[in-house]
Amino acid sequence: MNAFRRTVRGLLPAALLLAIGGTAAANTLNQNVSWTVDRSGTSTKYRVVAYGDSIYAGYNGSTTNAARYAAPTVEAEYLAALWNADIESVRRAKSGAIASDVYQNKIVAERSYMQASNTRVVTFEMCGNDGLQARSSFKGQSGTCNYGVLNTALNNCKVNVAAAMDYINANASPNVRLKIIANLYYPGYNADNVQSSCRDASTGATVNMRTTFLPVIAKMNYWMCEYARQKGFKCADSFAQYMAADYDSNGDGLIDSDAIRYVAGESEAAYVNKITTTYRSTLRDANTKFATASTSYDYIQSDDVHPTYSGTTMRAGLFGGSSGTGAARYTSFSGGKSPIWNRFGHERMGWALSTYNPPSP
User: Fold this and answer.
1) Which domain holds residue 77?
2) What pLDDT shows up at residue 312?
3) How many domains does the chain have?
């Protein structure tokens, strides 16, 4: 899941545990769907392929269905208008999957979807469940704190993100025009503002969970975007989209969400310092995403984990995936934004993906 997150029902969402059971490695749920945005007046169809975990799946607490308009399908709607074409959004996702699982069992094992000649966009997200497992482990510690579990999650994320990009570069259709990763947001940001049960070896004191976890998610996000820069991908900065206001709250002349974005070419140290120190005071829990000083929207569902979404659901889960076709909700976008672009978590992520769309297929 694309979130270094607070879990309210254990290591994975309770629905997954009830549905799958067994060993920890098996606590995942395939949630694959395909939805074609049907543009009137054209029969030309291109494809967006999205690989990931419960975020791209559109997980909503159910083992049998998921959001129809998760971020990749929102992106498809923008493309349909831009290219005046039908756009098929293929989501190959596995709720609960760690980065290596997404890489091996989705991107590699299901490479045929991105190899289709009509594929024009390939996108993926991963690493949130690596962070989740590490954080769950850290929260359960007593005695002396072991920070190694956090470093392991970070390293596993870096290895698999780089491998995924290399594999997509080598295997995607030569007709692909855009390759893009979405990085991690941080649900549970407020809930993590508590002290640990373990104690730091140097100080003998407990540590603040949020202060401990924030540099780790910052490093994960940095390397997602930096590898993207190095390997010909784009990076949709979900952390910036979710975790700061869309106005200048501190009077420094910068929109908060713009100020915390990854900047191509900056060092890891500079990016981490920006997130954890320079603009730390502007970070906000995504349950209250401020569009203006007086208007806010909830980007996180009631589980305090997954993005909110607009519209209906479709079958995805225990009884297999589904596919369908329907007219676009919006046929044009004033200023490149739908009327609800900033009101739901999935709408915001889909818009962020769309900002890199090439002008023609």
Assistant:
1) 14-354
2) 97
3) 1
